[in-house]
Specification:
34% of the residues lie in helices and 21% in strands. It is α/β, with parallel strands linked by helices and 343 residues long. Helix 3 crosses helix 4.
Length: 343
C-alpha cells in the first residue's frame, strides 16, 4: 500500500475543487442551479476574528462544521457553507496595535492568512460567498436594517451602565474585562453610565415563546431559550423616593406581599445608583459587582451582599418609608432593575 503523502495528494484535489467550483452553490435563478430544488441546508460556524492567524481552535471548530456539511451533501441536500470574518471591535483593534499597522492593512493581512490556511486544510467552503463585516458591501445592510428598526420604534436610546477602561478610554465587553481589569492594559475597570442603543426584544417575547414549540430542538435547549426570554406574569408597582422626587417601578409576581416589604434594592447597573449615593463605598461596590457575570450573580448559592444607599422609598400601600440598597443579585435585564424585599 502506498504511503499517504498529504502535501502531494491534497493540493492536487484542492485544485480540482477550485477549478470545478465544487463547493459553490448557485442561487435558484442562476445558471447551474438545475431546476430541481433538493432539501436545503445552511452550515455556518462562528465567524472568526481576523486578529492574527488561525490556530487549533479554529481547525477543531471548522473540521466539525465541515464534517456536517459533507454529511448533509451525501444525503442529497443542497448545502450552503459560506465564510466570513467578524472584523469590527477590540480584537481587530488590538491586533493592529500589536503589529503597528493600520487597522485596514492588518485586518486584510489576517484575512488573507485565514483564507490561505483554510484552503490548505481543504475545508469545503463556498468562497464565492465570502464576506467581512468591515466591508461597506456588508455593513450597509446592517445600517439599513437598523434604520428600519428605528423607524418602527424598535431601537431606542437610554443611559445604562457599561464597563469602562479609564486608561484606554473605551467600553469593554464582558470577556474583555475578566477579573475586573482591562485585558489590554490591566487597568481596573470602572462602571460608567453612558447613553446606549437598545432593541425592544421584549415586544416579541410571546411570539418567541410560542414559536419554540415549532422548532426541532432538544428539550434542554428550548428550556434555556425560555429562561433567556424570561417572560413572567405579574404587576408593576411604583415606589417613590421623595428626597429626589423620582418614581421607581418594580415588577412583582406577588403583589399581595406588598404590605410585608421591608427594604428596596437596585441593581448595580441601575442609572440612578450613583445619583442616590456617590460615596467611595458605593462606587467600589458597583465596580466590583460589574466584574462578575450576570450568570454568576444570579446563582442561588452565591452569598448575598449589598450596600446601603442612605435613602428611602415610600411603600405605596401603607405609606411606610423603607431603606434603599444596591445589591449584585438584582439584575438590570430582568424586570425594571429594582425589587422590593419581603422576608
Amino acid at each position: 500500500m502506498r504511503r499517504y503523502e498529504p502535501e502531494q495528494i491534497e493540493p492536487r484535489w484542492q485544485r480540482v475543487w477550485a477549478d470545478e467550483r465544487t463547493w459553490e452553490v448557485p442561487n435558484a435563478a442562476e445558471p447551474g442551479h438545475g431546476g430541481i430544488e433538493p432539501a436545503r441546508s445552511y452550515v455556518l460556524e462562528m465567524l472568526p476574528y481576523p486578529s492574527g492567524e488561525p490556530h487549533m481552535g479554529h481547525l477543531k471548530c471548522y473540521a466539525i462544521g465541515d464534517a456536517l456539511a459533507h454529511f448533509r451533501r451525501r444525503r442529497g441536500e443542497r448545502v450552503l457553507h459560506p465564510m466570513g470574518y467578524d472584523a469590527f471591535g477590540l480584537p481587530a483593534e488590538n491586533h493592529a496595535i500589536r503589529t503597528g499597522r493600520h487597522p485596514r492593512e492588518s485586518t486584510d493581512a489576517s484575512i488573507a492568512e485565514f483564507r490561505r490556511q483554510f484552503r490548505s486544510w481543504g475545508i469545503s467552503i463556498d468562497w464565492s460567498r465570502e464576506l467581512g463585516t468591515h466591508e461597506p458591501e456588508y455593513y450597509r445592510w446592517t445600517q439599513w436594517l437598523f434604520l428600519r428598526l428605528f423607524e418602527q420604534g424598535l431601537a431606542y436610546r437610554r443611559d445604562a451602565a457599561v464597563k469602562w477602561c479609564p486608561t484606554d478610554e473605551t467600553v469593554l465587553a464582558n470577556e474583555q474585562a475578566k477579573d475586573g481589569v482591562c485585558e489590554r492594559c490591566g487597568t481596573p475597570v470602572e462602571a460608567r453610565q453612558l447613553e446606549q442603543w437598545f432593541f425592544r426584544i421584549t415586544d416579541y417575547a410571546d411570539a418567541l415563546l410560542d414559536d419554540l414549540e415549532t422548532v426541532d430542538w432538544p428539550d434542554h435547549v428550548r428550556t434555556m431559550q425560555r429562561n433567556w426570554i424570561g417572560r413572567s406574569e405579574g404587576a408593576e408597582v411604583v415606589f417613590r423616593c421623595d428626597e429626589l422626587g423620582v418614581d421607581y417601578p418594580v415588577f412583582t409576581t406577588r403583589p399581595d406581599t406588598l404590605f410585608g416589604a421591608t427594604f428596596f434594592v437596585l441593581a448595580p447597573e441601575h442609572p440612578d445608583v450613583l445619583r442616590l449615593n456617590d460615596s467611595p463605598a458605593v462606587r467600589d461596590y458597583v465596580n466590583h459587582a460589574l466584574a462578575a457575570s450576570a450568570e454568576d450573580r444570579g446563582l442561588e448559592q452565591r452569598e448575598k451582599t449589598g450596600v446601603a444607599l442612605g435613602r428611602t422609598v415610600t411603600n405605596p400601600v401603607n405609606g411606610e418609608q423603607i431603606p434603599m440598597f444596591v445589591a449584585d443579585y438584582v439584575l438590570m435585564e430582568y424586570g425594571t432593575g429594582a425589587i422590593m424585599a419581603v422576608p
